Amino acid sequence: MTTGPVHTGEPNDRDLDDFVRSLRESGVDLLVGTALDFAGVTRSKGVPVRRLPSFASSGMGASPSWVVFCADNGIAFTPGIGVSGDLRLRLDPAMVRPIGDGMAWGPTSYHEQSGERSSLCARGRLFDLEGRLDTLGLTAQMGAELEFTLIAPDGSRLGRSPWAAYGMHSVVAQRAFLTDLTRTLEEAQVGAEQIHAEYGTDQFEVSLAPLPPVEMADTAVLTRILIGLVAARHDLAPSFSPLTFVGGSGNGMHLHLSLARDGRNVFGTGDGPHGITSEGGSAIGGVLAGLPDLLAVYAGSVVSSLRLTPGSWSGAAACWGLENREAALRFLAGTPGNPHGANIELKIVDPSANLYLATAGLLGSALDGIARALPLPAEVAGNPADAEDAALIRLDAEPSAALDRLASSALAEQLFGADIVEGAVAVRRHELDVFAGSTPEEITAALRLAWS
């Protein structure tokens, strides 16, 4: 199914002319519009800033094969996506903002030549789900935590002083990068709430403030671009690979979700465990029920399974628990220490995911659980590996099996549409074929900068 344009708050032509003038006066020359392919890689089209109105109305041309570009730059053609045809990347001017170095950025959506949105547009599917919230009487806020590892531009380790996990020593060592990043994020109006050293060597995290789903995903894409831009100024590169180096810590892209009905948080205003309402319990049940089918969307790259291991805080168990960092779904209660209120965090998502699809998967599976009035599953309070049913709740992260489940999933087809599912499966199968027989060291080395 396709719908019309999905721009948010699109200004009229005169407003766009004024906007272009203001961008040029602020030193912007190049306007870059981005789109994510099904491999999770950020692709872009650039135009002189004077062409912003055309970018927003008629769009810039892109082959349908753009969505099935692969992390190794191969192309995973499908029966419906070949060498013929043309899509238009239409800029959302409401999200355009300067990003420094003479550039401005904005997200795009895929459209047909006729103007209708393409059935291949992941951002558009997320818009559809966000629109469903109104009809259901719900509102949603979502957040993201972006982990990355700083490396040399050639992909090698930095090889600097010993690392202190979460340590001030680590912050001081990269203070020039971190202060520049903080300034750049503030100037771009990105609501960063935390910027800190992580557990792994040369690993950092940027946490973003809650926003409506599409705006959150757009902002997270922008944040990753800005991290790369700032890193380049300091002769560094950020690796957003799920596992940068074998034996090191994995990078996650954790997604948070809160839902409210009539202003009341469904995860914190009820009489269930930790204040969970019956709707909140159903939402949790829906997310957990959808994990097997959607795992290849959340963490489907050939690198992802190397990260999803017990004991790594990657959420490799299909369960939920209060502040349980080994559970796929961590529950955060509404306490004085949690100013944003009760919410759920899906820990298995990694930076190789198409962020729009992963966000749609989390939101959509929660809504599916509410629609089916699923019960709240039993909570796992400790380490899932020590639970009596540990073998049953451990996620099956074997890539081929995860792709088989996605390909045959009624839930995935309902949330994303058949065309997106077919393309996403083809892209990940291409990765498996290309790297069949490769060692983890060879895989991580080849794709260390693929998502940067």
From TrEMBL:
Domain GS catalytic stretches: 122-452
Similarity section: Belongs to the glutamine synthetase family.
Pfam families assigned to the protein according to its UniProt record, in alphabetical order: Gln-synt_C
Protein name per the record: Glutamine synthetase family protein
Swiss-Prot/TrEMBL keywords: Ligase
Organism name: Microbacterium panaciterrae
Signal sequence segment: none
SMART domains: Gln-synt_C
Annotated PANTHER family: GAMMA-GLUTAMYLPUTRESCINE SYNTHETASE, TYPE-1 GLUTAMINE SYNTHETASE 2
